[in-house]
Amino acid sequence: MKALVYDGTRDVKVKDVPDARIERPTDVLVRITTTNICGSDLHMYEGRTDMETGRVLGHENMGEVIAVGDGIDRVRVGDLVCLPFNISCGFCRNCEAGKTAYCLTTNPDPRMAGAAYGFAGMGPHNGGQAELLRVPYGDHNCLILPEEARERQSDYVMLSDVFPTGWHATELAGLRAGESIVIYGAGPVGLMAALSANLKGAGKVMVVDRHPDRLALAGQIGAIPIDDSKGSAVDRVNDLTNGAGADRGCECVGYQAHDVEGVEHPNATLNNLVHSVRFTGGIGVVGVFVPQDPNSPDSLYQDGEVAFDYGLHWFKGQTMGTGQCNVKAYNRQLCGLIEQGKARPSWIVSHELPLAEAPSGYRHFDARDDGWTKVLLHPAA
Ligand code: NAD
Ligand code: ZN
Hints:
381 residues; alpha/beta; Quinone Oxidoreductase, Chain A, domain 1; Rossmann fold; 2 domains; seven-stranded mixed sheet; six-stranded parallel sheet; 12 helices; 15 strands; binds nicotinamide-adenine-dinucleotide; binds zinc ion; zinc ion binding; oxidoreductase
């Protein structure tokens, strides 16, 4: 089959690789129809992980079931399915508690919890930027989509990651109807956090970035865009909230945040959040802060240290929730919002390309070239 493989730093290629196939009775085999490039793929692409060459990338996948193992009861050949990026078992302690991002079964590294398709450190599983994908524990890991999803793939594919992740950011922040919220990062995840805030009935929604095209997308759904290249985002948020600070805040950038002039701490976003969220307010952090150091296999977390004003965070009595999104926990709800026409997450899609053009898609998305917000790949095209 054709697949997009990692070949080294900023080097991905479409190659012929052995077909994905059913390996265990609980597997499902999916022919991928739509698969996205994600900001998280850039951690591997930019060479910041120990991703081995030859691995197939891609964790935002949907497609049609073409074969099922003998132990599969629920999913049927012909079903159109979306695949949460977390690969989980459904029966371990964390999965039982709904924390499928921290599955204790699917990652063979005993120091880790949680697995994903085509992701460094998240188990050996291949990704779905390919013609075929093997889905472990298929009855658990396939979200069966309504028939109309065939014609609206660019909406439904967002259920694999960015829509639930944006929603998760607002959950971690504790957002309630009518409250104000500031979101750092207007990439796909931050834009989905803004959409989620709207859907939850937030009051004022403010989105910070410096790319005009991304800020414009935030403006399209009624959020207030804040360009931090034009002045302090913290001051602007405080002005917009009568000096009190936002009720809630979300971090949707991660450790690759650009420097903000005049900020004393190396990670501007966490520090800005502490300064622009009110006393007793809540902060949700979904941006990734634990890159693996490729030169240090013994220390998975070595590069994860960041500094921010913890004293002020404590003094303000703020709460902070963190971590990967447990996609399954939100999937049915968010699928319902798409089906009812109440959410149209495809508004962020900028490009839809055949798999053969994936390397160019990576190049433009990585460079944050103007207008390259979200790239969808169609392996069957
Ligand atoms: P992205 O890189 O496309 O978007 C990040 C945006 O943040 C960019 O538009 C950039 O201009 C902006 N930015 C950079 N520095 C900033 C700063 N100091 N202040 C404000 N904005 C700043 O990525 P994405 O796809 O939107 O993903 C965002 C983060 O979320 C990444 O770290 C990704 O790995 C992570 N992520 C986490 C989960 C999860 O489960 N927790 C899931 C998906 C993605
Ligand atoms: Zn993703």
